[in-house]
From TrEMBL:
Keywords: NAD. InterPro entries: Arna-like_SDR_e (IPR045869), Epimerase_deHydtase (IPR001509), Lipid_A_modif_metabolic_enz (IPR050177), NAD(P)-bd_dom_sf (IPR036291). GO terms for molecular function: carboxy-lyase activity. Residues 4-255 form the NAD-dependent epimerase/dehydratase domain. This is Bifunctional UDP-4-keto-pentose/UDP-xylose synthase.
Length: 350
């Protein structure tokens, strides 16, 4: 019966992971976050109250609580991070302070108390790598010039990976996982109309619901390998279980190489699907696809990656895992999940 500490338990990965743990294992979840909107159902479910332990707090303030619970728990997942490109460009120091500086004491405590640290790296560490598939053990990590602050996120995460690896050389039990464009319900709020503030699927979905134009940055030719959240959580559960220590000291890409589509393709797929739903069809009729530049959309400090495909050989072989959700099913699941929220999203137009 593991005790799993999830910092950022109300976040996209955090709330999906907590739900899966409570539904399918006998593990206890100890969670901290500043909000509870995504985990309200779990907190109120009588079946889970004995195993779902929540504290409302901030990792940068409630440091004693964090250290105490690292000491108390078996597996530590520090999921608190800024992961929105507009913030990388406009507030790079905020990204560094939270994603690196605030997480470093957590890493050190995990090493101090001999815990299994399961840390969220990112597909962004590969940067503008030229490999057809990004290999966690061999691919070069290539970032742009300093005057492109977009790379602060990639660099902060990469430095943390290297620090964790260094602690591993001194005995830390760690696993680094690199999510490749995980998508699903609860990724961001669809009620956030501010451009560049949310991840691309949610951004497009919000525009469709509100009948607004979809902007393709630099033509939308850049590709991403999209991964449905349930597939990602499947892999994470196996990492946390860590049967026979298989995941210790490893780096895993968690992604779906088959779901590799351009952003332009994504916009087309989402508009076609929206037309099938009475709730979304009217809004979708008003949407036009327009092109913009990355400078106009994000600011001058932005650079993009044209292709980002994960090599998942070791993830599949060692964890006995494989992604199974198609792109069509992933998008349909998202559209289904938000059917009851359409009226609220449209109210933003008033």
């Amino acid at each position: 019966m593991k005790k799993v500490l999830i910092l950022g338990v109300n976040g996209f990965i955090g709330h999906h992971l907590s739900k899966r743990i409570l539904e399918t294992t006998d593990w206890h979840v100890y969670g901290m976050d500043m909000n509870t909107d995504r985990i309200t159902e779990l907190l109120e479910d009588d079946n889970y109250k004995s195993r779902m332990h929540f504290f409302e707090g901030d990792i940068t303030i409630n440091k004693e609580w964090v250290e105490y619970h690292i000491k108390k728990c078996d597996v530590i997942l520090p999921l608190v991070a800024i992961a929105t490109p507009s913030t990388y460009v406009k507030q790079p120091l905020r990204v560094f302070e939270l994603d690196f500086e605030a997480n470093l004491p957590i890493v050190r405590s995990a090493a101090k108390y001999g815990k299994h640290l399961v840390f969220p790296s990112t597909s962004e560490v590969y940067g503008m790598c030229h490999d057809e598939e990004f290999d966690p053990e061999n691919s070069e990590l290539i970032c742009g010039p300093i005057n492109k602050p977009r790379w602060i996120y990639s660099n902060a995460k990469q430095l943390m990976d290297r620090v964790i690896w260094g602690y591993g050389m001194e005995g830390l039990n760690f696993t680094l996982f690199r999510p490749f464009n995980w998508i699903g319900a609860g990724l961001d709020s669809i009620h956030t109309p501010k451009e560049g503030s949310s991840r691309v699927v949610t951004q497009f979905f919000g525009h469709i619901v509100r009948g607004e134009n979809i902007s393709l940055v630099d033509g939308g030719a850049q590709k991403r390998a999209f991964t449905y959240i349930d597939d990602g959580i499947d892999a994470l559960i196996r990492i946390i279980a860590n049967k026979n220590g298989i995941a210790s000291g490893k780096i895993y890409n968690i992604g779906n190489p088959i779901n590799n589509y351009s952003i332009r393709d994504l916009a087309g797929m989402m508009l076609t699907l929206a037309a099938e739903y009475p709730e979304y069809a009217e809004g979708a009729k008003h949407v036009k696809i327009v092109e913009t530049t990355s400078g106009a959309y994000y600011g001058a400090g932005y650079q993009d990656v044209q292709n980002r495909v994960p090599k998942i050989t070791n993830t599949c072989e060692e964890l006995g895992w494989a992604p199974t959700t198609t792109m069509a099913d992933s998008l349909r699941n998202i559209f289904d999940a938000y059917r009851s929220q359409v009226a609220q999203a449209k109210a933003l137009m008033d």
